[in-house]
Amino acid sequence: MSLEKEITLRALGAEIIRTPTEAPSESEESNIGVAKRLQKLIPGGVILDQYNNPANPDAHEFGTGPEIIEAIENTPSTTSRLSSGKVDVLFAGAGTGGTITGISRAIKRHHPNSIVVGIDPKGSLIARPEELNKLDGESASYVVEGIGYDFIPGVLSHDQVDQWVKTDDNEAWAAARKLMRTEGLLVGGSSGSVLAGALRWLTTEEGMMSAGGVEGKNAVIILPDGIRNYMSKPWFAELARGDGQSELAKQIAELLKKP
Ligand SMILES: Cc1ncc(COP(=O)(O)O)c(C=O)c1O
Questions:
Q1: Which sequence spans correspond to the domains of the chain?
Q2: Residue of the nearest CA to atom 12 in ligand 1?
Q3: Residue having the nearest C-alpha atom to atom 3 of ligand 1
Q4: Which atom of ligand 1 is nearest to the CA of 156?
Q5: Higher per-residue pLDDT: 21 or 96
Q6: 155-162 average pLDDT score
Q7: Which fold has domain 55-241?
Q8: CB 124 less than 6 A from any atom of ligand 1
Q9: Which residues contact 87 (CB under 8 A, 6 or more apart)?
Q10: Would you say residue 23 has pLDDT above 50?
């Protein structure tokens, strides 16, 4: 968890216990393990449990999902910008899975043919429950926060996700940078993962047939988080600086040389 998230929670009056990221979720040392221990030790302790609490996907089924549908329906189709009037494909990452499960329920109820594509970092087991008890040979670890887990959260309904795309950190940072530079959207790493996965899927044969190459189709990409939560992360400093001297920096250096 980033320093920014920790100090924001502290400002709100919370106490934060740091746990090792690499601790398996079922171990006593993990974030979940420590929370369970504290629940027993603190009189009246409760765990709101975003991993199993049905209020998590419900908030997206009855909040985020209808909001997206309304936005699409209220954006008229014009000759210069055609619209099918519905969500043709939805792309979202999965951490608890509440977002993708809830939005999927809402949009598929509205249009059963909507396609839902989940984005999962390489090294996470969320996309493949059948691999849970096996070593899958994919030892990639990831730095991106908020998506991916080493267990399947109870609120994630795999039935609601039609396909999964696996992504790595580098393509996530590159896509986040592109969003910043071209759209002015200062997003976090998981947003970059979702965009990278979405762009890859849209250029597959199935993606091209269903939305990527068809005018008027609406592809909705969920960008869950802003960069302010990650300003102190080394990956952001690298991403912001870029890899070498920019054209603008060269131009400025030339201009300043002139008498
Ligand atoms: C930054 C970020 N991205 C993505 C997600 C994934 O959302 P969900 O837990 O609903 O799957 C989260 C969840 O907390 C998050 O913090």
A1: 3-41, 55-241
A2: 146
A3: 146
A4: 11
A5: 96
A6: 97
A7: Rossmann fold (3.40.50)
A8: no
A9: 68, 69, 72, 107, 110, 111, 114, 218, 220
A10: yes
